[in-house]
Amino acid sequence: MPIYFLHLRRGNELIEDFDGSLLPDLDAAKAEAFAAAREMLAERVKAGKLLNGETFEITDDTGTVLATLPLRDALVLD
Questions:
Q1: Which residues form the DUF6894 domain (predicted)?
Q2: Terminal Cα-to-Cα distance of the chain (whole angstroms)
Q3: How far is CA 33 from CA 46, 47, 48, in A?
Q4: Cross-strand partners of 57
Q5: Long-range contacts at 21-29 (CB < 8 A, ≥ 24 apart)
Q6: Helix, strand or coil, per DSSP, at residue 20
Q7: pLDDT tens-digit profile, the chain (78 residues)
Q8: What is the residue-wise DSSP string for 22-56?
Q9: How does strand 55-59 pair with strand 3-10?
Q10: pLDDT value of position 32
Q11: CA-angle at 71, arms to 69 and 76, nearest 5°
Q12: Which of 45, 50, 60, 77 is deepest in the core (most CB within 10 A)?
């Protein structure tokens, strides 16, 4: 099973995921990033903080960015 890393980018700062996650494919990695983004957004709302343009960068074990997910994309308004 491949390993995917969910790094968090805040402007010029990159908060690296050094452990990664063994996941079956990129779609599973995207789903994991989406779930993590929703958790982070919930914490932000509770704390009364705003989004600052953070983005998850999903990479493989070579460091290649395979996908990005802006946290704001995890906001689902029904």
A1: 4-71
A2: 35
A3: 20, 21, 22
A4: 7, 68
A5: 26/58, 26/66, 26/67, 28/4, 29/4, 29/58, 29/66, 29/67
A6: coil
A7: 999 999 999 889 999 999 999 999 999 999 999 999 888 888 877 777 766 778 999 999 999 999 999 888 887 655
A8: E-SSHHHHHHHHHHHHHHHHHHHHHHTPPP---EE
A9: antiparallel
A10: 94
A11: 105
A12: 60
Residue type, 62: T
Query: Both tokens of residue 23?
Result: 């996941």
The tokens for 55 are: 């983005």
Which residues are registered as beta bridge partners of 21? 4
Which residue do the tokens 């063994």 mark? Answer: 22
Q: Tokens in use for 27?
A: 């779609």
48, 42 Cβ separation under 8 angstroms: no
Helix (H) or strand (E) holding 22, with range, is strand 21-22
